[in-house]
C-alpha cells in the first residue's frame, strides 16, 4: 500500500514503478517471459542444483572419511565463498562463452556451499554411543554409515538444501545478468537499458516465486522423508 502510494506520488516509473504497474507489465509480457525466458532460467537452476547436491554431498562424505582430506579441503571450501561471485561471473563468461554452462558454474559456486557444510556437520553429529552399539552388534563401517550416519545427517542436509535452492535462483539470475541470450535475469537487464522500471521488476517477481516454490518443495520432501522425526 505504502509502495503504491509512494510510487504514484513520485511518478518516476522508470525508477520506482508501483506494484500495480509491475503486475500490469507482467500480464502484458507473460507469454514472452513464460515461453522464451522462464525455461532457460529453470534449466540453469535444475542443472546447477543437481550438480550442487552431488558435489556438496560428495565433498562432505569425502571429508568425513579422512581427517587429512578434511584439513586440505575445508579451508578451500571456505575460501571459495570469500570471493565475490559478481567478480567471477565475467571470467566464467570468458571461459564458457554465453552458453548455459557459464551460468551453471555461477549457480553451483553459490549453491553447493550450504549443502556441503551442513551435510558435513550432520555427519559429524553422529552419536558415538550409537556407533559403538552397532559395532558390538557386529555391524560393518558401511552398515554404520548407512543406518546411523546418514539418518543423523539428513536434517542437516535438508537445512542446507533449503538455503541452496533459494541461492540457486540468485546464481542463475546473476549469471544471466552478466552474459546470456535468454533468461529472466537477461530480460531484466535488457529492460534496464530501456529505462523500463516495470519491465525490470516483472521477471524479478517470477524469480522470487520460483525461489518460494522450490523452498516449499524441499520442506514437503523433508516432511515426507523425515516423518520419523518429532516436530513441534
From TrEMBL:
Q: Where in the cell is it found?
A: Cell membrane
Query: What is this protein's name?
Result: ABC transporter permease
As for membrane topology, the entry says: Multi-pass membrane protein
**Please, which domain of life does this record's source organism belong to?**
Bacteria
Primary localization class, coarse = membrane
Question: Where in the numbering of this chain does the ABC transmembrane type-1 domain appear?
Answer: 38-222
> Which family is annotated?
Belongs to the binding-protein-dependent transport system permease family.
Give the UniProt keywords, A-Z.
Answer: Cell membrane, Membrane, Transmembrane, Transmembrane helix, Transport
- Name the residues that span the membrane: 40-64, 76-98, 104-124, 156-180, 200-221
Asked if the keyword Coiled coil belongs to this entry, the reply reads: no
Amino acid at each position: 500500500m505504502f509502495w503504491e502510494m509512494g510510487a504514484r506520488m513520485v511518478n518516476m516509473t522508470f525508477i520506482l514503478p508501483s506494484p500495480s504497474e509491475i503486475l500490469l507489465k507482467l500480464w502484458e509480457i507473460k507469454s514472452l517471459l513464460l515461453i522464451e525466458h522462464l525455461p532457460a532460467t529453470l534449466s540453469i537452476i535444475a542443472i546447477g542444483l543437481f550438480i550442487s547436491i552431488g558435489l556438496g554431498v560428495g565433498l562432505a562424505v569425502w571429508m568425513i572419511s579422512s581427517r587429512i582430506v578434511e584439513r586440505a579441503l575445508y579451508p578451500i571450501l571456505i575460501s571459495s565463498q570469500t570471493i565475490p561471485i559478481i567478480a567471477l561471473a565475467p571470467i566464467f563468461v570468458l571461459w564458457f562463452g554465453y552458453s548455459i554452462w557459464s551460468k551453471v558454474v555461477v549457480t553451483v559456486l553459490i549453491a553447493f556451499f550450504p549443502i556441503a557444510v551442513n551435510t558435513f556437520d550432520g555427519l559429524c553429529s553422529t552419536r558415538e554411543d550409537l556407533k559403538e552399539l552397532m559395532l558390538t552388534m557386529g555391524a560393518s563401517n558401511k552398515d554404520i554409515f548407512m543406518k546411523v550416519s546418514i539418518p543423523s545427517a539428513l536434517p542437516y542436509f535438508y537445512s542446507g538444501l533449503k538455503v541452496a535452492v533459494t541461492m540457486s535462483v540468485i546464481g542463475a539470475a546473476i549469471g544471466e545478468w552478466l552474459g546470456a541470450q535468454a533468461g529472466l535475469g537477461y530480460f531484466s537487464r535488457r529492460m534496464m537499458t530501456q529505462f523500463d522500471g516495470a519491465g525490470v521488476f516483472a521477471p524479478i517477481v517470477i524469480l522470487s516465486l520460483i525461489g518460494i516454490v522450490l523452498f516449499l518443495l524441499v520442506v514437503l520432501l523433508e516432511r515426507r522423508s523425515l516423518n520419523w522425526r518429532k516436530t513441534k
